[in-house]
Fold:
Amino acid sequence: MGRLRAKGKAGAAKAYVTRTSAIKKLQCSLADFRRLCILKGIFPREPRSRKRANKGSSAPTSFYYAKDIAYLAHEPVLKKLREHKAFAKKLSRALGRGEWSDAKSLEDNKPVYRLDHIIKERYPTFIDAVRDIDDALCMVFLFASLPSNARLPPSLIENCSRLAAEWQLYVMHTRALRKTFLSIKGIYYQAEVMDQTVTWLVPYQFTQSIPADVDVRVMLTFLELYQTLLGFVYFKLYTDSGLVYPPPLDVKKDEGGAGVGAFSLQSTSQSAPSAPPKVRAVQIEGRTISGKDVRQAIKSMAGVDSEVDGDVDMQNPDSNPMEVDEEFVPQPSTSDPHSAASLTTLKALAALPQSLTTSLFSPYSFYLSRETPRPIFEFIVRSFGGRIGWPASSGSGSPFEESDESITHVIIDRPVVERADESSEERERRLRRKYVQPQWVVDCINAGKILLEEPYTQGKTLPPHLSPFGEYEGAYDPALGLTGQTAQESESEDEDVVIPEADEEEGEGQLAEKTALRAAADANDAASLRAAELAAEVAGVDYGTFEKEVRKSRKKSKAAPEDGAEEGEQDMNKMMMSNKQKKLYEKMKYSQKKKASERETLEEKKQLLQKQKRREAKAG
Amino acid sequence: MAAKRKQPSRDEDPRTEATTFRAPVETLEMLSDDEGPEEDAASDDGQVDEFPEIDAASDSEAEDEVDEEGSDEEDFEEEDSDDSLDRDIFPKPKTIISDITGQPKRVYPEIEPDYDSDSSTEDAPNRVGDVPMHWYDDLPHVGYDMDGKKVLRPARGDELDKFLQTVEDPSAWTSAFDKTAQMDRPLSAEELDIIRRLYANEVPDAGYDPYEPMTEFFTGKGKEEVMPLSAAPEPKRRWVPSKWEKQKVMKIVRAIRQGRIIPSKPKTASKLEFYAIWSEPSTSHAPPLPAPKPRLPTNSESYNPPEEYLPTEAERAEWEALDPEDREHDYLPKKHSALRLVPAYDRFIKERFNRQLDLYLAPRIQRVKLNIDPSTLIPKLPSPQSLKPFPNYKSLKFTHSGRARCISISPDGAWVISGDENGIVSLWEVNVGREVKRWKFEGKIGALEWCPRTDVSYFVVGIEEALHFVIPPNLSSTVLLLTQSVLAPTTLPPAPETPSPVKWVTPPTSSWSPDTAILTVQLPQSSGLPKQIAWHRRGDYMATVSSGGTQGGVWMHQITRRHSQAPFKKIRGAVQLVLFHPLKPHFFVATQQYVRIYNLSEQKLLKTLTPGIKWISSMDVHPSGDHLIVGGYDRKLCWFDLELSDKPYKILRYHTRAIRSLAFHPTYPLFASSSDDGAIQVFHSRVYNDLMTDPLIVPLKILRGHTVKEGLGVLQVKWCARQPWLVSGGADGTVGLWCS
Structure:
């Protein structure tokens, strides 16, 4: 017998602490504890035995690892939070006493916590960080679309929309977008960044209001972390692909509603000559110099290249297809040797072999009709190398006008209206261009090829839009149509409907055929099969039907008795399973059955719909 | 009042202030005194009327009039003298021209501060003091005067006089009864005024002005103090620069010079600058587990899904009826014909929020996802086809009128006896199912058992409180003779020294017939129905378990000695079953929850097995004696390896209702169980001599054919000794023979 152990001194009782005791240990408020948990990524754990972890009590509590809490106790952010508490007291006292100058100096020296060490801690490698930015992107895109109020200062919204735009710029620049899905919840995008798939959801462009049962404090704490995380991730992504971070913002364009077009990407090769010190220099500059200064510096440098204004990455879109791949903000201008040189460096830096699918739209120019959401399609089309223009009502910064001759597709989302006063020029233009509905663009991306425009033309009923992310294995696939078993059944059902009529017509002869077929069905060995075949021939059954009948009957006979025997044996063997195995087995069987039933209901529905359609077609 | 008389520009002695304040206080005292004599009151009248007027005048004159210290002193004297003259009236001032200022001033008569000056003790002839006057109610006098003479009660008229007086005297309504004088006294003018004021809710004091303008004594314009309060010289610290302040300032100056304090720091702290955070090597810490990614959207979430994904009306209603937490999907698929028609998703923020709650509030468990085919979980066992023979069809059916509760098969396996609840015992042949003989007993048949000896042939029938030994018909003469000699020997063995409550009765030889029992063992009174009869393999000993009685209802009977004894003095729990070990002198006793193994030769407990069954219903021991199966009413079947453990080696639960009976085949590796669900389960049970190899149990066949009647199914199963055949008796009254 081992040493006697006192209860509660080792094991689960020591390894877990309840939330209340954690708060007591950290000497902070619940709100601060929550904030810390969010920032540090600490979450409750489920102990093996709740009773053992809670000293015999089975009250519903949440448990944390005692070590997690011990780490929290040394957290600099916790220290800052305590300082902030003291600061708040001091400030309120100063305000209460009317000591305005004291209050002001207190406010100026307010304790502010930094999160960079937490980012480094939570994501030790860059890949870890990229893997985990899904939620961050979703939040940033959501907050970029929210209206500002007392709880959400405009600076926050602005920062979120900047982060959102920077991400889109990066994705467009590296052609990282892979899949897009228009769902009822919003638009799902999937990009491949650093070999990690990043999926994010962007709401449709409507004003969202925060419901009452949502705690904004929690969301803002998450957002705080996510903003920092995204900042560092972008910095690394941009500098790795040789771009300046943050990309300078053109205030004038931004005010005109240019969206992502207001930012201009700049390669660092211009600002710093050699690669290794380049990062260093950028860092220093990024810290001290504002975007405006950078732009001015670049202007002065680029002043040598006579006509070029600021933007480095503009080329002639028509010069050659590879250049089209590389171009970012396509603007018609004459190419010059210097920009060509910058092009090569960009190419070298990007160094990503781009497959055909990433430059899917490069031969095409799109024009957005005014009712289509510009940010979505500008992002999608430009991520796949296409050129896109839009009317002024959708924002400024369109690279070309509606009358541009290079436009090949018009993305339009309204019913066809006959226009009486159409000039011949307009008519000619209309005939030359293809008018497609927005879904065509998304379906092309998901298919990885240019689909036929025909089913998607303006005013047509669209084919269903399917998820590019797929479903679980063995799920119902609407694209494949019905699977074997049910399809056959439906066939046979159809036949059943037909046969009685035929019976009445043919009468006697049919009877003989039937008996022959039945004989074939019953025949098991080769000899009797042969005999049955002969009998069928005599009865006048053609060989095809005979074969079919034999196959069907064989399948049936095989399926029925042998399966039955097997099943029986299996059922009996189930008795010998242990209780645990039995439960596991039942669970798995349950989920299988559920999946199968889901599939079946969908297939049944499809059959019904098909029948209905056929009936309508007959009637009509 | 007096204060108002002060000239604002003049410094005043506080002492004068105090004295001047006293005058009104005194008047107040006088006014409150209601003891004035009536003759005075009458003479006072005119002056009293004047009094408030003087008061008012003094108010209005307050600012013009000037007082002087000297005249104030006169004031006092005059007042006093005046007071002594006409007692309780306010002294009348005289207005004279001051010889100092040349202004007219009022001079009051000086007060003479002698003993008589107090007017309150002036007259009152009655000197009894403040005693309750009802003490004098019965006396002719009302008190005593200063000289100790009685003051006689004034004459008081009757009510009529009183009334006439009130009519005649005009001042009667302003007079009140004076208790000390025991007569009516008219109220003075001041008193009347006080009453009037009280009625009018005014301050009773006529001289009090509630709205006096504020008098500024020390503050206000022109009254600032110019002289210092203290004559101490100005301290040095008031004009020498502070040393400590200088030190503090110098500290800051030094800090600024050294650059520790930046005077105008730019406020850029709020903006976090980004840098290459991942350029430094990371710590050796393992990264925390990444949070699980949210589910990716499926086809049904599309804005334009295939039509089969759209919910029907029933599905929609079902979805809406569910709680939001119970819903499988948090959305209903919807089809929009164009992208421009897609509305905003109303639960977008809510869903984001829920995701965040999951991230920081939900406990995370890392689970290994089992991606296996469930059929691999089913153990691989040899096919039943390879384990033949075993019974798999019903070849015979024998019908009883009541529930066929007990069955026994002769040791040679050719005959079956079956007993039912109506007291009928039938003997029939296994091969053809023909009934050979039928016995009728009183009451239910509780148990039936054939003696295992092969040289003799008889069976025991247990009915209420008795065991009948019956010899079947058609025996060969040698066997019959031997049987008779065993059961009814000519010389009875000697009676045991201790008398037993169990009686062994043999009817006389003349009355022997095939229909009656050759030997009857009468169990003690109220022992109830023998539930079970268990034979020792030699056929000499027999154990019975009765439903009632003392000592657990267990009796051990020895045929040769015609003797019965109770093996247990007392036993814990109700005994359900007993069994003899097939090889060793061991005895199994199953109580409700435990199985105990006793060594009969050493008379001690060997082992207690705990099957974990709530209520044991059946038990059988393997022919090798090393394995035991125990079945319970809670559907469990436990296989014990007696060499291994006290705990079951395997627990099987496959019957849907209570297990009723279990039986090992004596020669074939088979066992069967029957249950109230009407099914009989046949198992292959191979036991190895090698201790390391676990016994192999393979389910072979489920035999169905008995119907469930009143919740009871198959009540007993028994194996034929030499064939893999099974006989089963059911609650539906049928006894079936199952052949291979």
